[in-house]
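To the wet lab folks,

You asked to see what we're planning to order before we commit. Fair enough. Below is the target structure as tokens, and below that is the sequence we designed to fit it. If anything looks off to you, flag it before the synthesis order goes out.
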């Protein structure tokens, strides 16, 4: 009887460890799927103006700055997919090592993205159906700042994998907004491209929150932080689109 009693806690521990392992494996596959979906959105959205530019010839013309931004952004997204894949095949060490490269690429992407957005506004470039260029500048700036906040928090919490992976995934969701908006243009929804981009970003985050609750029976606080960042960024863009104060600030920036 004593032996049976002694073995009971051990069996419970083994069952708990097995459940945690299954949850971690499920998480890894879910994150890879969501990262892949985001990557497809980015590619499809920017295909006419960047990836398939030589075939489709969509405006505006590419410059060295936009090419550099597109290349670095693409490298960051592909690295994101690679890192998620490494977790699926249970190779966390190279995942962490590549994180250094990811941080460098993201820093370069932020710098190039800001320069690209400001230059486009100064030259009067904006997608069809979008608000005037100076107003549209707000979209790029708020999206970049929102993603920067999430990545910074993700890197700060890199040793807390539960926080790190959720914040980083949310940062990628935020960066899909402009790509989604560009998908809406050829579909005849040019005037709603910004709204559609916001809705898709929020929908991706909502799916992640739903999955968290479904598997873990609660929503991790990292997602509520991410939701707050998304709400602030999107609200800031909508405010800027109708604000004379923003136009004044945009003129100073450009």
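Sequence we intend to order:
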């Amino acid at each position: 009887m004593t032996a049976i009693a002694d073995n009971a806690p051990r069996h419970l521990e083994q069952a708990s460890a097995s459940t945690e392992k299954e949850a971690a494996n499920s998480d890894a596959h879910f994150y890879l799927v969501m990262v892949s979906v985001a990557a497809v959105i980015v590619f499809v959205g920017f295909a006419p103006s960047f990836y398939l530019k030589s075939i489709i010839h969509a405006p505006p013309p590419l410059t060295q700055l936009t090419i550099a931004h597109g290349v670095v952004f693409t490298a960051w997204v592909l690295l994101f997919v690679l890192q998620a894949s490494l977790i699926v095949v249970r190779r966390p060490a190279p995942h962490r090592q590549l994180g250094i490269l990811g941080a460098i690429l993201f820093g370069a992407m932020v710098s190039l993205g800001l320069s690209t957005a400001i230059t486009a506004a100064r030259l009067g470039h904006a997608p069809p159906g979008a608000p005037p260029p100076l107003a549209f500048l707000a979209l790029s700036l708020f999206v970049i700042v929102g993603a920067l906040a999430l990545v910074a928090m993700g890197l700060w919490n890199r040793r807390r994998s539960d926080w790190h992976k959720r914040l980083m995934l949310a940062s990628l969701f935020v960066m899909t907004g402009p790509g989604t908006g560009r998908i809406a243009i050829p579909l005849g929804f040019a005037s709603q491209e910004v709204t559609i981009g916001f809705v898709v970003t929020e929908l991706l985050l909502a799916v992640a929150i739903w999955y968290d609750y479904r598997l873990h029976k609660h929503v991790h606080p990292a997602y509520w932080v991410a939701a707050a960042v998304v709400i602030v960024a999107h609200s800031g863009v909508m405010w800027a689109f109708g604000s004379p104060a923003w136009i004044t600030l945009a003129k100073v920036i450009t």
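Structural context that might help your review: The chain has ten helices and no strands. The chain has one domain: 21-253.

Thanks,
Computational group
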